[in-house]
Design brief:
- The protein has one domain.
- Helix content is 33%, strand content 40%.
- It has two helices and six strands, in the order E-E-E-H-E-E-E-H.
- Strand 2 and strand 3 form a beta hairpin.
- The chain is elongated.
- The N and C termini lie far apart (52 Å).
Length: 121
């Protein structure tokens, strides 16, 4: 489910988790949506789920497009020992590393453009 309420500061999304079957409110700042160099971008959050009286941690990655709409999602159940498995770490870190690499490329390009503008003036 992808319902959203927008304002000048950002978008409030209502996301239904297929594991816990609850709808969660997720507020994403407008600056985060507009500040991306590639879409859809990953937005990560944690939430709890009660299963047979046991609390379970769930990690959710929402993929947000340039209009602020959720275009996909991934959900990982976290282990009982509060440690991440290798697969969970890869699933968490991979989109973040990709975003860092894109930001580094953007930074490098912008630095070069600034240097060019300084030479012209």
């Amino acid at each position: 489910m992808n319902i959203m309420k927008n304002n000048e500061e950002g978008s409030l999304k209502y996301y239904r988790c297929n594991i816990c079957n609850l709808t969660h409110e997720v507020f994403i700042k407008k600056s985060i949506i507009e500040g991306q160099s590639k879409y859809p971008f990953p937005y990560v959050f944690l939430h709890d789920s009660m299963v047979n009286g046991d609390i379970q941690e769930l990690l959710t990655i929402l993929y947000i497009d340039s209009n602020g709409k959720v275009r996909g999602s991934e959900i990982q159940k976290l282990g009982d020992n509060n440690l991440f498995s290798k697969e969970q770490v890869i699933n968490i870190v991979k989109p973040l590393v990709e975003e860092i690499e894109r930001l580094q490329e953007d930074h490098s390009k912008l630095t070069k453009e600034i240097d060019k503008l300084k030479l012209k003036s």
